[in-house]
């Protein structure tokens, strides 16, 4: 084993020796975080979405009532049209 080669490699990685490090007397550093206005807007939108309900009861309640009463009718033509539209979008 060649110790000289190991010493050369070690010298490449030890470029800063303890004597070369400078310490500033009394200097204190602190991390700071700044959020942009866009980031604040996104956070506000996320909070609003999280606070809103998942299901709009004012829309779904009449449909549920008509299904329960057995009066809900689905037009076969409109269903087929929407099905074909979705199929075309997926292509």
The secondary-structure element order is HHHH
- Roughly how many Å apart are the termini? 65 Å
The number of helices is 4
Radius of gyration: 34 Å
Principal-axis shape equals elongated
Mean pLDDT: 83
Q: Say how many strands there are.
A: 0
Low-confidence stretches: none
Strand content: under 5%
Biggest sheet overview:
none
Helix and strand content put the structural class at: mainly alpha
Give the assembly state of these chains: single chain
Helix content: 55-70%
Describe this structure in words.
By secondary structure, the protein is mostly helical. The protein is 59% helix and 0% strand. The protein is built from four helices and no strands. It has helices spanning 3-13, 37-51, 57-69, 76-90. The longest helix is centred in the middle third of the chain and has 15 residues, at 37-51. It starts with a helix and ends with a helix.
Descriptive key words:
91 residues; mainly alpha; 4 helices
Give the arrangement of secondary structure elements.
Layout: H1 3-13, H2 37-51, H3 57-69, H4 76-90
